[in-house]
Amino acid sequence: MEDTVAASLTVGCIKINAVLFQADCSLRLGYDVYVKDSPGSSEWICFDSPSTPASLKESDMLAVLDRIVSENGLSYTECCFEKLDGRQVKPYEKLLEDRK
Predict the structure, then answer these.
(1) Which of 8, 44, 72, 100 has the fewest Cβ atoms nearer than 10 Å?
(2) Domain ranges for the chain
């Protein structure tokens, strides 16, 4: 069974989904947090799946999102990640070279 999105809250470049997923033969509610690599991008990149107890209330979802943004130095208005170029992954050696 795939996860089912029960509620979604998007604030700028950050999104949180409350999802239903199957675990231990029962349905559970959890969160998935997504970010964008550029403001105009239509794609979302999964950033975190916190183990915080989940709720469908907008205020609870926003509180979790605020905490994750604050703890990880993210921004609602600016993308904090290098823009992904298609689906290609740089070789590990190239990544090390770029960091020098």
Answers:
(1) 100
(2) 4-99
pLDDT digits (tens, 9 = 90+) for 43-80: 898 999 999 999 999 999 999 999 999 999 998 888 77
Q: Which amino acid is it at 73?
A: G
C-alpha–C-alpha distance, residues 35 and 37, integer Å: 7
> Could you tell me the pTM of the whole model?
0.76
- What's the pLDDT score for residue 23? 85
* Beta-strand relationship, 26-35 and 45-48: antiparallel
Q: Edge-to-edge, what's the strand order for the sheet holding 26-35?
A: 4-11, 14-23, 26-35, 45-48
24 Rama sector, left if φ>0, alpha if ψ -120 to 50, beta otherwise: left
